[in-house]
Amino acid sequence: MKQRILSLLFTVYCLQLTANAQSYNFSFDGRDKTATKITADDVFTPEKGYGYDFQNVIDEARTQQTDGFKLSDGIFYFSVAVPDGNYKVTVTIGSKKHKGNTTVRAESRRLYVFNEPTKKGEFKTFSFIVNKRNTEILLPDGKRDVVKLKPAEADALRWDDKLTLEINGDAPACSQIKIEKVAVPTIYLCGNSTVVDQDKEPWTSWGQIFGYWLTDEVGVANYAQSGLTASSFYAQNRLKKICSLAKPGDYVFIEFGHNDQKEKNAGAGAFYNFAHMLKTYVDQIREKGAVPVFVTPTQRRAWDGNKIRETHGKYPDAMRFVAKDLNVPVIEVHDMTRTFFETLGVEDSKHSLVHYPVGTYPGQTKAFEDNTHWNPYGAYEISLMVVKGIVDLDLPLKKYISPNYKGYDPAHPTDWKTFHWSNSPFIEITKPDGN
Description:
Blueprint: H1 2-20, E1 23-27, E2 36-37, E3 50-53, H2 55-63, E4 76-81, E5 85-94, E6 100-106, E7 110-118, E8 123-132, E9 136-138, E10 144-146, E11 162-171, E12 174-182, E13 186-190, E14 219-222, H3 230-235, H4 238-245, E15 251-254, H5 270-287, E16 291-295, E17 303-304, E18 307-308, H6 315-326, E19 330-331, H7 333-348, E20 353-356, E21 368-374, H8 376-392
Helix pairs in contact: 5-6
C-alpha cells in the first residue's frame, strides 16, 4: 500500500514538472546528445506529457486514400502538454539518410514551414511562435469564466491541453524540436469560417496560414469559428477571453459580415446592431491597450457575367463607416478578393475554393461546389492579402513580417497549378457552418 502511495505521489510530481516546465528539447535522430531522445515507443499519454500522437488517425486515413487524396509516407504528429501561452518552436528538418521535403503545421493545421527541401545530410532550422490556449477565462477580480464552444469544436486541437505539431511533406524529415515559452506580442483574430483554423481537409482559412508570413517575434491567437457573427462571437465570451489576455503592443483583427447579414432579429442591420457591435469591440480592445484592425469580409464567388456580384449588402460599408469614425485601420480584403476572383476568371476561380468532384476525398458522395469556403490555395492567397494590407497601411506590425513575404498583388496571384499542399489525415466532407 505504501509503495502504491509513493508511486502515485511520484506520478503527480512528474505531472507538475511537465505542467510547470518552460522549455523542452527533443531529438528524433540522436544527433543532439543533450536532448531527450525520442523513440518509436514514445507515444503521447497525459501521464507522460509528450510523444507521438494520432497514429491511429494516420493509419485509418491511409486505408481510405483516393486518387485525389494521398498521405505522405513519414507523416507524424508530436504533442507536448504545456500551460497556456505563446511558445517559440524551433524545428530542425533534414536527415543523414535521405533527402527530404518537409512541411510543419501546428495545432489545427496552422502553417509554419512550407515545402522546404533538404539534401541528404543537409539540415535547416526554422523558428516560429505557436499560441496554445484552452477555454478558461481568468478575470481581474479572481473569478473565472469559460469560452462557450460550439459542438463542432469539442475535439479541436486548438482548444485542448497540449501543443501539437504536424510533420508532413512529400518526404518529411525531422531531426529536432525545441519548445520554449516566451513573452511576445500577440495578434488575436476574431471572425467566422473564412478566418478560423479549420481542423480538417480540404477546408482552410486565411487565419491558419497567416503565421507563415510572420517572424518568431509575434504570435497569432485565432479565436474565430465557423458560423459566427460579431454578436455571437461576443456572446460566446471569445472577446472576453481575448480582453482577459490582451496587453499594450497586441493587435486584434476583426473580420465579420458573412453571417451578420443573415440576422433578422430586432435591431439587426449593417448600420444598427452590426455597427454597434464593432464599436463595442473597438472600445473594449482599446481599454486593454491593444490595437483593433478591421478586415473587410472576403467576397463570395458569385458571378454577374465576368464580374463579381456584390453579395454582402451594406456590411462592408458599415465596417468602413465605423472605422473612419473611430480611426480604426481597415485591410480591404473585400476589394482584393474581388480583383483576385476576376483575375482568375469564372472557371479557374473554382480552384481557390472547395470545389472537388465526387470521390476526391474518402466518403465524398457528392461534388463539393462551395463558393464561400477556401481550400489551401485560396486561404494562402487571402493570407497574403492580409499581409499586404499591413504593409500598405504602414502598421507597426510590419516589422514582424518574415522574409517569406515577397510582396503581393491580387491581380497577379500565385499560379494555382503550381501550388502544392500535403494533406492532413483529418478529413471532413460536411460543409462548415455559415455560407
